[in-house]
Design a protein that fits this description.
CATH class of the largest domain: Alpha Beta
Largest sheet: 5 strands, antiparallel
CATH architecture of the largest domain: 2-Layer Sandwich
Shape: elongated
Low-confidence stretches: none
CATH topology of the largest domain: Beta-Lactamase
Radius of gyration: 32 Å
Number of domains: 2
Length: 258
C-alpha cells in the first residue's frame, strides 16, 4: 500500500550578493550609510537620480559636501548627537549638479559605534510637495496683499441687529476709518452702528429674506465713517448654514460706490 505524504516546504533559497545589490539599487529612495566623520560608506543608485553625482564619486566624501550650506550646521549637529538605537527625522536641501535644489526628508538611525556602518539612513525626495506648498503660500500672500490694498471689506458676522463682526479684512480701515481690531466682536462699534439709521431696517429685512430663501443678497446703502463722513456702499453676501439648515452667520464683501 502506497503511503501518501504531504508536500513539504522547499528550502528557502538564499539570495546571492548580486541579487541583494539589484534589490538595493532598485529602490526609489536613497539608502545610505556613513561613518561618524559623515563620510559616505555606501549608497544605492537612487543617489545619482537625486544629486546627479555618480555613486563612485560620492563614496568616501562627507555627506555635507552635497548639502546646501545653510543646512550643514543643523545636519552636523544631528549626526554628532545620535545615540545607538535612536532615530531622527530631518529635512534639508541637496545641491544637484545642475544647480537645482532638491528638498529631502531623511530618517537617520545610529546602529553601534563599533559597527562597520555606524550611521544609516533612508532619504526621499520631497521637492514636489515642498514646491506645491511654496506655491500655495505665495498665492496666499498675494491674495492677502491684494485684500489689504483694496478699499473694500471682507467680513463674517453674526446674524443679529448689530451685525457683530467675527472677521473683517484690513481693508476695513480704508473703507470705514476703523482698524479691524476696533470692529471685531464689539458691542459699541459694529457694522450695525455704522449703517445709516435710515437704511438699517431695510438692510436687516433684505438680508433676512435672502437667508430664508438660501439666496445671496446684493444691497446698496450708506455707512458713516469714523470721521463722520457718509459714503455709499454695495454689500454682496450670503448666509452661512449648519448641516441642519440653521443660520450660523453672514459673510460678504462691502465696497464703496460713492
Amino acid at each position: 500500500m502506497a503511503i501518501l505524504k504531504w508536500p513539504g516546504r522547499s528550502k528557502p533559497t538564499q539570495p546571492s550578493e548580486q541579487q541583494l545589490w539589484q534589490l538595493f539599487n532598485s529602490l526609489n529612495d536613497v539608502v545610505i550609510a556613513f561613518d561618524h566623520r559623515h563620510r559616505i560608506l555606501t549608497v544605492n543608485e537612487c543617489w545619482q537620480k537625486i544629486t546627479g553625482t555618480p555613486v563612485s564619486e560620492a563614496l568616501d566624501n562627507p555627506l555635507t559636501d552635497f548639502l546646501h550650506p545653510e543646512d550643514i550646521p543643523g545636519c552636523e549637529q544631528l549626526f554628532d548627537k545620535m545615540q545607538p538605537g535612536k532615530s531622527e527625522l530631518i529635512w534639508f536641501r541637496l545641491l544637484h549638479t545642475s544647480g537645482e535644489i532638491r528638498w529631502c526628508e531623511m530618517r537617520i538611525q545610529s546602529i553601534k559605534h563599533d559597527s562597520l556602518y555606524p550611521l544609516s539612513a533612508t532619504l526621499c525626495d520631497i521637492t514636489p510637495q515642498v514646491r506645491n506648498e511654496q506655491v500655495r503660500e505665495a498665492n496666499h500672500r498675494s491674495l492677502q496683499s491684494l485684500v489689504k490694498r483694496l478699499p473694500a471689506m471682507l467680513y463674517r458676522s453674526r446674524n443679529n441687529l448689530s451685525w457683530t463682526m467675527e472677521y473683517v479684512s484690513d481693508g476695513c480701515e480704508l473703507l470705514t476709518g476703523y482698524h479691524a481690531e476696533e470692529l471685531l466682536n464689539q458691542s459699541q462699534i459694529c457694522l450695525g452702528s455704522l449703517i445709516h439709521p435710515d437704511d438699517s431696517e431695510t438692510v436687516w429685512d433684505d438680508v433676512q429674506i435672502a437667508l430664508q430663501t438660501h439666496s445671496s443678497f446684493d444691497l446698496d446703502y450708506r455707512i458713516l465713517k469714523k470721521n463722520g463722513d457718509e459714503i455709499k456702499v454695495k454689500d454682496r453676501g450670503r448666509g452661512l448654514y449648519s448641516e441642519s439648515g440653521m443660520v450660523l452667520g453672514v459673510e460678504g464683501i462691502i465696497m464703496q460706490t460713492g
